[in-house]
Automatic annotation (TrEMBL):
Domain RecX third three-helical: residue ranges: 104-151
Family of this protein: Belongs to the RecX family.
HAMAP family per UniProt: RecX
Keywords: Cytoplasm
Entry's localization field: Cytoplasm
Protein name: Regulatory protein RecX
InterPro entries xref list: RecX_HTH_2nd, RecX_HTH_3rd, Regulatory_RecX, WH-like_DNA-bd_sf
PANTHER family, per the entry: REGULATORY PROTEIN RECX FAMILY PROTEIN
Species this protein is from: Dinghuibacter silviterrae
Major localization listed first in the record, in broad terms: cytoplasm
Domain RecX second three-helical: 57-98
Any one biological process term the GO annotation gives: regulation of DNA repair
Length: 157
């Protein structure tokens, strides 16, 4: 065994703690194992063991990730989906995670964000304020048609 490399048993114990502390996706667990100096078959074996012992559950991760990013950072569905794809989460799990976001909560959050941003730009020309608000909402991951509708609702007298 090389110095700085953990045995399979040590790595499994550390990873159990790592996964128990916070939900993790398979990619995060795999990267952690590579960081412990493990490779190939050993990594696959330990990932399987963690799934078997219910320490890793990609569907549970996607649901918690989507809900958390929406509630805490007010991210839109597009940004959440992109982030989950970057973490190599399956399309099925991504759909499950996004389905947990209630449509009315999503619309209320979008409307509140649009209103807050638009009002903060009150010194700007109306056209510029609309464009900056739209850009902000798109950066947060909201769909262009929903963002546009939210801004249109603000502009009505």
């Amino acid at each position: 065994m090389r110095p700085g490399r953990l045995s399979k048993e040590q790595a499994l114990q550390k990873l159990r703690h790592y996964c128990a502390y916070q939900e993790r996706c398979h990619q995060e667990a795999r990267e952690k194992l590579f960081g412990f100096g493990l490779r190939g078959e050993e990594v696959d074996e330990l990932i399987s063991k963690l799934i078997e012992d219910n320490y890793l559950d990609e569907e549970r991760f996607a649901v918690q990730f989507a809900g958390g990013k929406f509630r805490m950072k007010q991210w839109g569905r597009r940004k959440i989906e992109a982030e989950l794809k970057a973490r190599q989460v399956s399309t099925y799990c991504i759909r499950k995670g996004l389905a947990q976001i209630q449509a009315d909560d999503y619309q209320k959050t979008l409307s509140r964000l649009a209103e807050d941003k638009y009002n903060a730009l009150s010194t700007e020309e109306p056209f510029v304020a609309r464009a900056k608000t739209m850009s902000y909402l798109l950066q947060k991951g909201y769909e262009p048609d929903l963002a546009s509708a939210a801004i249109d609702n603000l502009a009505k007298p």
